[in-house]
DNA sequence: TATAGTAGGTACCTAGAGGAAAGTAACTAC
DNA sequence: GTAGTTACTTTCCTCTAGGTACCTACTATA
């Protein structure tokens, strides 16, 4: 199996997990491209590869495959292969994946009310020039 | 200012944010090393640079500085510089940063009940051999 | 004959994140 | 005069995630 598929082994000596119970979740759910994939599947239901590819703009098929495999391995996504011609594959969120929904909802809510605060803070920081001290 | 400090500009043409309202939050809160830092600050209160450096194992001072600057810029962390000798700098979570607490709590809760499901799914997947289809 | 559609696989390459290690300012203590 | 302390900064280097591009098999359609 390709080394590219597996994440950088969660080695206790090199990972930021020790001080933080949420880092493992970040590795599983919030690594690059995984959240849009999970979001898309939970928001729009079962989808084919190309549908995901089109909906998630700028993702390359290679990376989409990688992430889907990873999510399948983690039990968050279910892959169904139909041996037709042309081949048809469908992806849907698993039961375990669905337990993330309230999390996603809360994050979306936090974003709706606080992202603008973050952006205002950035402008304030940038306008103030380089940090003194 | 060093290019290393700034994140890869959130360009609408290259980012996975379009299909997903939670990606921006991921960029801000859940990028590498930021969650342990925020967690540490919200769990153990105001801390000095070296305290964070010791608590978050294996983080290098360079990266810690980068992440703290980023979090300060985003208004999630407050930095207080005391011009003493030797210099003393204290970091604490901001009011805006504190609004993340319920999020963190929910994620920690999800982890507590579901991480083992993920690990079991992985073992099942790996034992089944390469994906057929 | 050639092209399109589907779900990827594979080889190659680059940008950039992040690590290692040394340097810096400014003062104190020995 | 030298070592220690703190909070970084800077330089150099490595590694790898991710992008580009091309390839597979099979059929329908023009």
From TrEMBL, chains A, B:
Keywords from the UniProt entry: DNA-binding, Transcription, Transcription regulation
GO molecular function, one term: DNA binding
Family annotation (InterPro entries): HTH_HxlR, WH-like_DNA-bd_sf, WH_DNA-bd_sf
Transcription regulation found in the keyword field: yes
Cited Pfam families: HxlR (PF01638)
PROSITE patterns linked: HTH_HXLR
Ranges for domain HTH hxlR-type: 20-119
Official protein name in the record: Transcriptional regulator
